């Protein structure tokens, strides 16, 4: 293995160094170091930033800022982030969760990126030195992104309006067959007044189920009324095929699991 | 490739080494420092055989660069026995036949140790969850789960 690591105290200096060929940012390393161990020579320089601000979680007035280096374990045990804990706990086993960062999860290709699926449903804002972008813009452009993510901002959901489901074959920590996150607002009579649904493993990165979101509006969460939304969920999907499941299988079971999530 | 200094405490004693930049903690421990208790099963984060405890948290040493451990408190299974007396977890793994080939054992014991340090009386589910990142191809897991529960009982009896 030939990797070299450089540590910077400021994001600004690190961003400049990151522009060099073969250079990547080192988050928890669960994907980049793994790739190097596997013989991937495309990346030979790693950059990290020692600024402790990147590892901070700030909660105030219903808003949350997660530093890009915050780990899944830190989210899972944070007393004010109970709504996010199921998604953070869905990532890997205990040791992976102690290492896996928010920033790295946003770059993780399917079948990984379970936490990013939750962030997409929550309409997160991704923060870099250059400014803030909506998570959808970030995800669309991430392959060419050469800027260090410093933080992710979300509005903390009410526990009852946010739902997350990861389906895996090995329990309790297998890789995703698929994951789904849904942010739902219901009127007092139980009809859906707003819906934001994100899917994992239904493309090479997290995507929204826009047609299903639209079909859910005005529905009550009953098997009859959600049926059109379950059918619509398959619109625009291009699931991955990997050793866990084929694209065909993933597409077949998506409506089943979305139904379970909505009727839960 | 440039060599870089790394310095940390390993099982309570100071270690300082020069390693090539980008060396994993697993390779530094095994090849430079001579602690072969963490095992390299996959170097992919999948098997857990390389698990160590860094500053009180379970980590995979195969995915951790040694340079990032400057000043850290690193613990491995090799440091558990005191004065020739096995740690209660090691004792329990023997008594419950939780070791066959033994390759997964040091990683299992590290994962179990962080669990028992925080949750002295774990449920079976707690144990399964704590060991969920560790693979064993020999035992079928049940004896390992029993060993961890046995060690927890032994600890609480000693405390009583
Ligand atoms: C055994 C195993 C099991 C896993 N299980 C799961 C799982 O169940 N669910 C899941 O979602 N993932 C899983 N993963 C994948 C991975 O651990 C997580 O996605 C994790 O969140 C990645 O974060 P990291 O900090 O380790 O990323 P790294 O490996 O450090 O980085 C990954 C990529 O993101 C870039 N990057 C990281 N941080 C930043 C930043 N702040 N700014 C700019 N670029 C950045 C890096 O340059 C690199 O290209 C698993 C991995 C392993 C090895
Ligand atoms: S060698 Fe580190 S997890 Fe397998
Ligand atoms: S005892 Fe052989 S792998 Fe667990």
Task: Give the helix/strand layout.
The complex is a heterodimer of chains A (264) and B (160).
Chain A: E1 4-8, H1 11-18, E2 23-25, H2 32-37, E3 45-49, E4 57-60, E5 63-67, H3 72-76, H4 85-89, H5 94-99, H6 102-107, H7 114-121, E6 125-128, E7 131-134, H8 135-141, E8 149-155, E9 162-168, E10 176-186, E11 192-200, E12 207-208, H9 210-216, H10 223-232, H11 247-263
Parallel strand pairs in A: 1-3, 2-3
Antiparallel strand pairs in A: 4-5, 5-8, 6-7, 6-8, 9-10, 10-11, 11-12
Helix pairs in contact in A: 9-10, 10-11
Chain B: E1 3-10, E2 13-20, H1 25-33, E3 51-54, E4 57-60, E5 73-75, H2 88-95, H3 105-118, H4 124-130, H5 142-159
Parallel strand pairs in B: 1-5
Antiparallel strand pairs in B: 1-2, 3-4, 3-5
Helix pairs in contact in B: 2-5
The structure holds flavin-adenine dinucleotide and FE2/S2 (inorganic) cluster (2 copies).
> Which architecture name of the largest domain in chain B does CATH use?
Roll
Supply the CATH class of the largest domain in chain B.
Answer: Alpha Beta
Which chain pair has the greatest contact? A-B, 27 and 31 residues
For the secondary structure, the number of strands of chain A is 12
Going across the biggest sheet of chain A, name each strand in turn. Answer: 4-5-8-6-7
Low-confidence stretches of chain B: none
Q: Averaging pLDDT over every residue of chain B, what do you get?
A: 96
Find the count of extended strands of chain B (DSSP E, 2+ residues).
5
CATH topology of the largest domain in chain A: Uridine Diphospho-n-acetylenolpyruvylglucosamine Reductase, domain 3
What distance separates the N and C termini of chain B? 55 Å
Principal-axes geometry of chain A comes out as globular
User: CATH class of the largest domain in chain A, please?
Assistant: Alpha Beta
Ligand inventory reads: flavin-adenine dinucleotide, FE2/S2 (inorganic) cluster
Span between termini of chain A: 48 Å
Encode the helix/strand succession of chain A as letters: EHEHEEEHHHHHEEHEEEEEHHH
Over the alpha carbons, how many angstroms does the gyration radius of chain B reach?
16 Å
